[in-house]
């Protein structure tokens, strides 16, 4: 999918200097599927990464479940009310290795934003770029002015929430469902994933010795590192340790939300994490809680009544238009996003290790489950 933001009088023009970002080629490469157009029949691709093109064309919004960082970028765009068209880049299908994408982003990372002649691929730089260039009378500011108390609070919680090991929570909860309650991950998934993890070493060796390997050595190296990370996250003692640390972080946030109630007592305003203003910190916290609920950790951390302020925050943020637009109903968004597009993954038949490892990290396993369901049914 692609992200497109029109140039209008309501949006500030990007400043001359702009934030640091990846240098771009003299001319943007030609992109497939009419990437810079807004045709209604623009083909869809599986939701495992996000490539954004911020261009002056009509929005064609679609709803997908994305990996954490892509979701946060989309929430920022939605909160600012910027029309957008989105284009997914499928990592299991190696679309991030396609020449057209590598010309945009040599690091082969997602998400990527294209705005005019600027190409930005770092998650934090994308958010800073959006905040720096798209804030005005009709576009809300999500990071308060420097030097203010609100600004320091937002930066504090941005750093704290960005430091949480979300991939470890995801891998660990998939592989150890006994530590979760009401997880939205199918029960048969753990055994299926473990079976493929056990065969991963053999599959990697086969790929190493193919006469015409479809995967480059850097790519194989990256996958081996990812495999090592997943195996580390399979350690139940490590998982219990980081979940305990997560509890302490949520205790801190619960206390901060209580401070806001005392600080603004008697004032008529909707309270958020850093004050009466909705900020980037709230987006990051909302996205984090959304993932934790999907993994089956919400009853452990707030739905048991232990953190009422956190419960109230989550209930309110789910009602915001941007969150409903980007994330939708947590019970229905997952499969509606993945299943229709899993046919491509089934048809291509990628190595099972790559499908399992990438999809575990990006979708908490949902695309992986859809892949195997369709493979068994139609192949």
Structural features, described:
By secondary structure, the chain is mostly helical. 51% of the residues lie in helices and 4% in strands. The protein has helices spanning 68-79, 99-104, 123-133, 149-162, 166-175, 189-198, 200-208, 217-233, 236-263, 280-295, 298-301, 308-317, 321-326, 333-348, 352-363, 366-378; strands at residues 50-54, 86-88, 112-115, 118-120. It has a 4-stranded mixed sheet, covered by helices on one side. Helix 1 (68-79) runs parallel beside helix 3 (123-133), helix 1 crosses helix 10 and helix 15 packs antiparallel against helix 16 (366-378). The chain starts with 49 loop residues before the first strand and ends with a helix. The model is unreliable at 1-67, 332-355 and 361-379 (pLDDT under 50).
What is the strand arrangement across the widest sheet?
2-1-3-4
| CATH structural architecture of the domain at 1-141 | 3-Layer(aba) Sandwich
- By DSSP (H or I, 4+ residues per run), the number of helices equals 16
Q: Estimate the mean pLDDT confidence.
A: 71
Spatial shape = globular
CATH-assigned fold name of the domain at 1-141: Glutaredoxin
Class based on secondary structure composition and strand pairing: mainly alpha
Indicate the low-confidence ranges by residue numbers: 1-67, 332-355, 361-379
Q: CATH-wise, what's the superfamily of the domain at 1-141?
A: Glutaredoxin
Question: Given this structure, which CATH class of the domain at 1-141 is correct?
Answer: Alpha Beta
Domain GST N-terminal: 57-138
Family: Belongs to the GST superfamily.
InterPro entries: Glutathione-S-Trfase_C-like, Glutathione-S-Trfase_C_sf, Glutathione_S-Trfase_N, GST_C, Thioredoxin-like_sf
Keywords: Membrane, Transmembrane, Transmembrane helix
């Amino acid at each position: 999918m692609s992200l497109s933001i029109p140039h209008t009088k309501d949006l500030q023009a990007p400043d001359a200097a702009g934030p640091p970002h990846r240098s771009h080629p003299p001319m943007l490469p030609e992109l497939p599927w009419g990437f810079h157009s807004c045709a209604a029949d623009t083909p869809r691709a599986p939701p495992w990464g996000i490539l954004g093109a911020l261009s002056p064309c009509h929005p064609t919004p679609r709803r997908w479940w994305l990996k954490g960082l892509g979701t946060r970028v989309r929430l920022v765009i939605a909160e600012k009310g910027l029309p957008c068209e989105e284009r997914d880049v499928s990592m299991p299908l190696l679309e991030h290795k396609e020449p057209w994408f590598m010309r945009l982003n040599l690091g082969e990372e997602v998400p990527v934003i294209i705005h005019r002649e600027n190409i930005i691929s770092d998650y934090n730089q994308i958010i800073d770029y959006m905040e720096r260039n798209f804030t005005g009378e009709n576009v809300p500011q999500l990071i308060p002015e420097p030097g203010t108390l609100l600004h320091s609070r937002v930066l504090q919680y941005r750093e704290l929430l960005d430091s949480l090991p979300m991939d470890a929570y995801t891998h660990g909860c998939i592989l150890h469902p006994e530590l979760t309650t009401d997880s939205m991950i199918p029960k048969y998934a753990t055994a299926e994933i473990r079976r493929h993890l056990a065969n991963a070493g053999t599959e990697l060796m086969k790929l190493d010795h193919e006469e015409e390997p479809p995967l480059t050595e850097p790519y194989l190296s990256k996958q081996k590192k990812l495999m090592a990370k997943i195996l580390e996250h399979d350690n139940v003692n490590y998982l219990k340790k980081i979940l305990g640390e997560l509890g302490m972080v949520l205790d801190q946030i619960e206390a901060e939300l209580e401070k806001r109630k005392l600080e603004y007592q008697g004032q008529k305003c909707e309270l958020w994490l850093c004050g009466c203003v909705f900020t980037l910190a709230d987006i990051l916290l909302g996205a984090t809680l959304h993932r934790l609920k999907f993994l089956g950790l919400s009853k452990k951390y707030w739905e048991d009544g232990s953190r009422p302020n956190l419960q109230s925050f989550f209930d309110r943020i789910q009602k915001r238009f941007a969150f409903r637009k980007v994330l939708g109903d947590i019970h229905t968004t997952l499969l509606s996003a993945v299943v229709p597009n899993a046919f491509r993954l089934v048809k291509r038949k990628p190595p099972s290790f790559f499908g399992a490892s990438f999809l575990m990290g990006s979708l908490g396993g949902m695309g992986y489950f859809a892949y195997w369901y369709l493979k068994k049914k139609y192949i």
